[in-house]
Amino acid sequence: MNLPGEFPAGPEFRETLRTGARRAHDTGEVDAASLDALRRSGLLGMMVPRDHGGWGWDPAAANAVIEKIAVDNPSIAIMVYLHCAVVVRIVKYGTEEQKNRWLPRIARRGQLVASAWSEPGSAADKRTLSTTAQRDAAGTWRMKGGKTFSTSATVADFFIVLVQLPATHETAHAAEPAYGGQDQALFLVDAAAPGVHVPPDALDMSGMRGSGTGMVQFQDVPVTDGDMLCSGSATTEAIQLPHRLGLTLGAVSVGLAQAAHDTALRHARGRDLLADERYRRQLASTEVAVRSARAAVSDLTAGSAHDRVLRAYCVKVSTSTTGQTVCRTVRGLLGSAGYLHAHEINRISQDADAVMHMGPPTHLCLDLIAARSTPADR
């Protein structure tokens, strides 16, 4: 794919991401230089429409960029993917006032948006939430609750927050697995709004350590109807929107698999191992796996839109599995060097493992696939 010329894929940008990935893995915090380079690059506005100051790129171009970023800095790539997933929701469901309020902040000021959805003790399907929004006597919504495992939380400029609304009727949950539930809403909330509290320290995770994944607390935060992006059945539609468009977390897994493959190739060239037939064969197998995963991601946007959500879940499972498999193969190729704590393959492997647990996590994808698949489909 020929990416638009604005993509800052120059050596300085890439080196900033690469060195930042190593620092972030050591510190467990977002690398400041990488985040600054990302904000200045304009990439945060790549999916913002041109009439709101962005580049107007489609999901195919975004997936390709996210993959390239993931090769150098998977934590930044996961932040960009989830940011783009919010952008497309604002574009689709936002009022003109909301678009004019939020999108230029992204496109012109390089602001970063994070999703605040997961909660301590709640299931991955987000169907039951303890974070609520209720109207007070003056008609203002009051948001209360806490979120965890929010990617980019420690550095986000604003959040899209999934909340439970007061039940207006008896809600009968469907028997089959679903993602999100009735009587829920999505609000856009400034990180600096009164009552929003973000602990400064990121969660001490084993993978994606530079993604700023943390907690967010909403302590009686006042929000209005103008801050509500959508509610009711539109909320579950909005949750699935990136999948319907073909924007996929699988792009991050492809980038990770490519990074692992490149690591094995550099190792072979530095030690004259390419003359070894067994090594070449194993290296070829990882190249096939990377290319196949990339093709699956490309097919989401190039193929028919029919049942794209189901295919997106399949791609999430297959690409994240590929990322793990390629990392294991490469560690075997590296021999004892691959088991040194400081070796690059260990950071890449831990990041690949982390993608399996990121939304929707692989086990939920499998449940959703099983619920949607019928003998007739096959």
TrEMBL record:
Residue ranges occupied by any Acyl-CoA dehydrogenase/oxidase C-terminal domain in the UniProt entry: 248-372
Pfam entry (one): Acyl-CoA_dh_1
Cofactor(s) essential for the protein: FAD
Family the entry assigns: Belongs to the acyl-CoA dehydrogenase family.
Domain Acyl-CoA dehydrogenase/oxidase N-terminal, first and last residues per copy: 15-108
Gene3D superfamilies in the record: Acyl-CoA dehydrogenase/oxidase, N-terminal domain, Butyryl-CoA Dehydrogenase, subunit A, domain 2, Butyryl-CoA Dehydrogenase, subunit A, domain 3
Domain Acyl-CoA oxidase/dehydrogenase middle: 115-221
Top-rank taxon, per record: Bacteria
Protein name, UniProt field: Acyl-CoA dehydrogenase
Xref: InterPro entries: Acyl-CoA_Oxase/DH_mid-dom, Acyl-CoA_Oxase/DH_mid-dom_sf, AcylCo_DH-like_C, AcylCo_DH/oxidase_C, AcylCoA_DH/ox_N, AcylCoA_DH/ox_N_sf, AcylCoA_DH/oxidase_NM_dom_sf
Keywords: FAD, Flavoprotein, Oxidoreductase
